[in-house]
Amino acid sequence: MEINGQLALTVLMGVFLVAVAAWLTRVENWRSYTPLASGGGAYGQESGHAHEKPGGLIRWFTTVDHKDIGMLYGLYGVIAFLVGGAMVMIMRVELADPGMTLISNTFYNSLLTSHGITMLFLFGTPIIAAFSNYFIPLVIGADDMAFPRINAIAFWLLPPAALLIWAGFLIPTGDIIPAQTAWTMYTPLSAGVGNGNQANAGVDLMLLGLHLSGVSATMGSINFIATIFTERAEEVTWANLDIFSWTILTQSGLILFAFPLLGSAMVMLLADRNFGTVFFAGEGGAILWQHLFWFFGHPEVYILVLPPMGIVSYVLPRFSGRRLFGFKFVVYSTLAIGVLSFGVWAHHMFATGIDPRLRASFMAVSMAIAIPSAVKTFNWITTMWNGRIRLTTPMLFCIGFVSNFIIGGVTGVFLASIPIDLVLHDTYYVVGHFHYIVMGAIAFAGFAGLYYWYPIFTGRMYQRKLGKWHFWLWMVGTNITFFAMILLGYGGMPRRYATYLPQFITLHQIATLGALLLLVGGFIWLYNFIISWLEGPVIESGDPWNLKEDGLYTAEWEWFDRKLQTKITDGGEQQDVATDGGHESDESDS
Amino acid sequence: MAAKIFDKETILDLTVNIIPLGIIGFFVVVFAVYDPFGYDPLASAISFGLLLVPLVALAALTYISGKAIAGDEKRSEVFLAGQATVPGSQTLEEYEAQAEPDHEPAELTDDESAEDAETEPTAQNTDD
């Protein structure tokens, strides 16, 4: 009886899928679909045989245009950022009081796990992919990505990945509860052994979702490597490749070597959980997981930070009135970080009791990798030094990036030293350190990019004043929150706990206050972006940042200008545009 | 060919990677000379491997990338990053020649008046 029911369901699903396939072939002639040339897009002004894109939602579900996919990645990343932000706000409010007050300790653990995974895998990687998909083909003069369809597939794997990762929250049953393993998924906890509740299917779904996001990232990285190697315009030699493309190329190389390893480790973990294998059960199983995880996990840090460094290296000179100081230093140091990032993974494991000789080697390479990062910092500072600085919102976020990156980086150098790490390991110091990087640096650079290219992807300008409110609330909020965490760590407050001793209450409340500032700033940003997208002044020039004046006008703006020039006017309505260049506009002369 | 590519200028660019190589090299020597944890065939071999593998990999990548970038610099025109496909953009040489003569400190004012007469007029909406 039950089998018959299942059979009927299977047949029904089969019929449904065939119907969907038949419908799709009707709405789109797939065989004749060629990727649109850059500059083509919905305007189709360049490519002689460019197709009109289908309208409405169908366009977004069927698109293989790199710009559209970039927009989809961006929307996805923003949604994930809001979800991850909401999760952490609940946690921070709970932490305003030492006891278990607002939420249960287990729910806190669930939020902690999902906040980390959401921000790293569902916000960080996709928001970077948003920029790289949209802009790299434009900047390197390619028609589109090397494999446009793989590009689309890579994106469409992400929504199901998010649903699986959040399944524990979305399916409110006793059998499926959110994972409480932290993003590191250390065994034996994550293997579901013992008396805990981590044997439930919610953890399996989270692992599968994470695996799917890894497949997506790997497909994307292969695409970027192929695109940057083979699709560059003739003029774009290796010497002419821009810094953002260099960082994406390096990041893609890291993804290619790191993510498959995470995937394999997770398959082993899933097998341990469901099929009775003992990869991580025996003696040394826990340390094996840590080695496998961190061999992926540390390059992941650079997977997330290199492209934001590229964005800052790309945007910061445009508002300093001069080219990037030591461009090739930045390129070579990016490559150096890429290689060395695979040689430092066990600095996350200094306190596990591994052989001291191995620890010493990992410490040495960890010290060495600080050099290329510091070189970049000096390059950014030197670029600004005596430059004609324009404090636009994207520039403010770039400067905020540099400032926060210095604090995050210096606190990290201390952690690379074994004796100091043994004292500070598993304290809030570590949390403060890496949040200075992931929030203070990576997210800041992401928002610098969002503001800088806002005119390109919306055709409008945001409200400058709100942009600045956003920046200052975030700059102050970030430093209050995460500096308080560094002090908490010095005081010995262990990380990952929902409750704490009363002696830590003041600093925890300060951290919560900072987080509330971040929340307010986030709302301002969201309001600004939505309202400006709908009602902001229309951009009429391909150079809204006055880059030509300093000879810093780049290919993506040139493409945007061409798009504006060839756009069919529909009545010649004109609006004055106040750019964020620090100058009010009096007239539109375009 | 290789000797020409790796001239003084290129070597100077590559110092940024030579320094971390030097740091790792320093620790190889230190651990070889001063050995506080004693010698163990497996642990010591892995320990040195963990230093030597990144050392060799970084050296190789630095060589290959240096050759590719410096080679392209010599083979074709170099533009500022992101500008190679922009019609009418200056080459790096022109940009530098233009920037070099006046060593006066850059303006600290907000004045947007263009010192650069060659910059073509733009269609943007700015005041002066």
Automatic annotation (TrEMBL), chain A:
Its main location: membrane. It is a multi-pass membrane protein. Keywords: Electron transport, Heme, Iron, Membrane, Metal-binding, Respiratory chain, Transmembrane, Transmembrane helix, Transport. It is found in: Membrane. The keyword Transmembrane helix applies. InterPro entries: Cyt_c_oxase-like_su1_dom, Cyt_c_oxase-like_su1_sf, Cyt_C_Oxase_1, Cyt_c_Oxase_su1_BS. GO terms for molecular function: cytochrome-c oxidase activity; heme binding. Residues 581-590 have a biased composition (Basic and acidic residues). The chain crosses the membrane at residues 6-24, 69-91, 111-140, 152-171, 243-263, 301-317, 329-350, 362-382, 394-416, 436-457, 469-490, 510-530. GO terms for cellular component: membrane. One of its GO terms (biological process) is respiratory electron transport chain. Residues 568-590 are annotated as: Disordered. Residues 60-546 form the Cytochrome oxidase subunit I profile domain. Belongs to the heme-copper respiratory oxidase family. This is Cytochrome c oxidase subunit 1. It comes from Halogranum rubrum.
From TrEMBL, chain B:
Keywords: Membrane, Transmembrane, Transmembrane helix. InterPro entries: DUF6684 (IPR046506). Residues 107-119 have a biased composition (Acidic residues). It comes from the Archaea. The chain crosses the membrane at residues 12-34, 46-66. The keyword Signal does not apply. Residues 90-128 are annotated as: Disordered. Pfam families: DUF6684 (PF20389). This is Cox cluster protein. It comes from Halogranum rubrum.
